[in-house]
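Record passed on here:
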Amino acid sequence: MKHLKWTLALAASLVTGAATAEISDNVVRVGVLNDISGIFQDTNGMGSVEAARMAAEDFNGGGKNIKVEIVYADHQNKADVGNAIARKWLDVEGVDAIVDVPNSAVGLSINTLLRDSRMTFLASSTASSDLTGKACSPNTIQWVNDTWATGNTTAAAMISRGGKDWYFLTVDYALGKGIEAEAQKYIEGHGGKVLGSSKHPLGTSDFASFLLQAQGSKAQVIGLANAGGDTINAVKQAAEFGIQQNGQKLVAFLLFINDVHGMGIKVAQGLQLMEAFYWDMNDDTRAFAKRFAARPGMNGKMPSGNQAGVYASTLAYLNAVAATGSDNAKDAVPEMKKFRGKDKLFGDTTIRQDGRVVHPMYLFEVKKPEESKYPYDYYKLVSTIPADQAFRPLAEGGCELVK
């Protein structure tokens, strides 16, 4: 009788294990959700899709002949559009993980939708630090950057170089407001002053009035708390106003190599920016960038930090699927959080219990045209912020998972 009970218990455990650790539909589907047609199309767009495909190819079945499909869609920088796509992927199309998602409003909406579902959210381009704070979810891993890191590390680096008086040009949605709030807190807490701030809509083409206000403030540093086409337009017009030539420093909180390429090194020279990834850092990043540049439709373009983050997070997720035999978030995400080691693109990396991926950050200055020796040779390294200093400490995260 005891033997029978043990056999039944074993059978039940095997059935339960099979039900919880399996690959749904015998295929792992990863959905790249981003801005394909708007202001983030160069830093994300189809480049992110190619980065995800590269990760799937390098995964190569994970030694277990696991089939991977990459799908993609354009959220148009609208939370309701992104939410509708994600819901269809979840309920109808069998997508197992969503990756990328630039635009914090869209990302926070997706984060809420996927909480406690079977889907994993690889928020490799969603910058809101709420993802590891008040909106923390057991389904979410946040790679590359966030507003805390962007605001604090950039402000710290500039203050250490004498930039204590600031004026902000801030995009009027969650991303910009979050960056400005974090930076202001740091600046005022370390003897600096914020002399003013101008808010502008997403997709602004004319920054003249905002730049005149910034120029008139006499601030030592003008902080661009925006991204994509907004940052490009602001930098171009700042050059026309001669802002940097007249002694004010221009710092971009969220800028990528594609943006610098788009505005041209002559316009961007002297610009300070914080990045988590630069294609020309070492042999590993250069090898990845060379492969990326040769992909269909890339036409020699170098990858942005966001596109590198899509590759790294997709590959990490697929490795977790192979390790657990499951594409369910409740199995894959805890497995991802075990990682401690060196990521080829982001260096020394840890995935914390709140879902924050911790790695070094770098302050760069855009080179002068005569300093650039080959295509996309745009940055010179100013300082390195170690991984343990670059992101909000875990104890301050406010995440219910770690209380």
User: Anything to note?
Assistant: The chain has 14 helices and 15 strands. The radius of gyration is 22 Å. The longest strand covers residues 193-200. The mean pLDDT is 91.
